[in-house]
Design a protein that fits this description.
The complex is a heterodimer of chains A (205) and B (146). Chain A has helices spanning 8-11, 24-27, 39-48, 63-76, 94-102, 120-133, 157-167, 176-185, 190-203; strands spanning 52-57, 80-85, 108-113, 136-141, 149-153. Helices cover 44% and strands 14% of the residues of chain A. The chains are: A alpha/beta (205), B mainly beta (146).
């Protein structure tokens, strides 16, 4: 493991958090890896769908990352976007939902991360209101059915290996067998795999 | 592509809490920026969500494409620069140019010993080598779990 320091005190210590290749700030820099399609193709499909579509996929399959990448691409095309993250830690209450919708302008394209985490009544309101008061609604959801699916995110052990290789370009080598096992254990949840790898690195001396 | 730089007086990069951080910034940019901002800040790096604390920001409006300026900040008494297995707290000076995303960051150490505090060398052996509540209070560990 690369320790980043050569002092005697540090050489007997486990890896510092800041040197861990799987630290959260490094993971934030990972961008969505397309397989079988491209960002341009996705943008074209979204346009055909009048920007009302869902990105679906299991936990840790890259939905949020793709939504963030999509936001940048849409803004580069001159579209105005408004991004809302909803999850168990940041729930969307009824009043918050109404306030968000009341502040929308018709030129804005709403990007909602975690549509299946909001209450059914709020979702109904969201879906109806954005038809006339927004330029579109693109959501992420674990399950299909809330809006027509534009892309289903999924992962493979090879994708995990590629991401890990990028993160550890100047650091520790991680065995492919371990990555295969992690991908299997966490059912393709790349985020969970990378958290586990953080802990494994942190324990190294 | 322009150039931004931060130089610390005497090349010093480790400071005691409460000490003055002095130096000079220089910029050579392709266009005239609206402003330059130099911030004294700390941030965390590790397993959890990142925390950041901006202590002070000096703004230079209409700095021109080329120039230099002196700066001086007084450090607070904490938190100290430290690292454990789950979180590191890093102090830095950050110079940003607006508009644009040109940024340069220079890390510094804030510690009474002049070195980053390694929690593993302070914590008792065994357990998970992370600080207890008392040590966290002394270090000024932010709310993220250490």
């Amino acid at each position: 493991m690369s320790q980043g320091r050569s002092s005697n005190a540090f050489s007997v210590c486990p890896m510092r958090a800041r040197d861990n290749p799987f630290a959260a700030d490094r993971l934030e820099r990972i961008r969505y890896h397309f397989t079988g399609t491209s960002l341009d193709e996705l943008l074209a499909r979204l346009e055909q769908m009048n920007y009302r579509a869902a990105i679906t996929g299991l936990e840790g399959s890259g939905k949020t990352t793709l939504l963030e990448d999509l936001r940048q691409a849409l803004e580069r095309k001159g579209l105005r976007t408004k991004l809302l993250f909803v999850n168990d830690a940041s729930p969307l209450t009824g009043p918050q939902c109404r306030r968000f919708l009341s502040q929308l302008v018709p030129q804005e394209l709403v990007l909602l991360d975690g549509a299946d985490a909001i209450h059914r009544s709020s979702w109904s309101l969201f879906r109806r209101h954005t038809v006339t008061h927004a330029a579109g609604l693109i959501i992420t959801s674990h399950r299909p059915g809330l809006l027509p699916t534009v892309i289903q995110c999924s992962t493979t052990p090879d994708l995990l290996k590629q991401i890990v290789a990028d993160l550890t370009a100047h650091g520790p080598a991680v065995s492919p067998a371990l990555l295969d096992a992690l991908h299997r254990r966490y059912k393709g949840d790349i985020r969970a795999c990378l958290r586990e790898l953080y802990d494994l690195c942190a324990r190294q001396t | 592509m322009g150039k931004l730089s931060i130089e610390l007086s005497g090349g010093k990069d480790a400071f005691a809490p409460g000490e003055q951080v002095e130096g000079r910034i220089e910029w050579g940019l392709d266009t005239n920026p609206e402003a330059l901002e130099l911030s004294l800040l700390w941030y965390t790096s590790g397993k959890g969500t990142r925390d950041i604390g901006v202590l002070q920001t000096n703004r230079i409006d209409g700095p021109g494409a080329l120039g230099s300026d002196k700066f001086s900040f007084t450090l607070p008494v904490g938190p100290y620069s430290f690292s454990g297995k789950l979180i590191s707290l890093i102090w830095a000076l950050e110079l940003t140019c607006t508009p644009g995303d040109e940024t340069i960051r220079k890390e510094i150490i804030v510690s009474p010993t002049g070195r980053e505090i390694l929690l593993t060398s302070l914590a008792r052996q065994g357990q998970d080598n992370e600080p207890g509540p008392f040590l966290k209070r002394i270090l000024g560990v932010p709310h993220a779990s250490a």
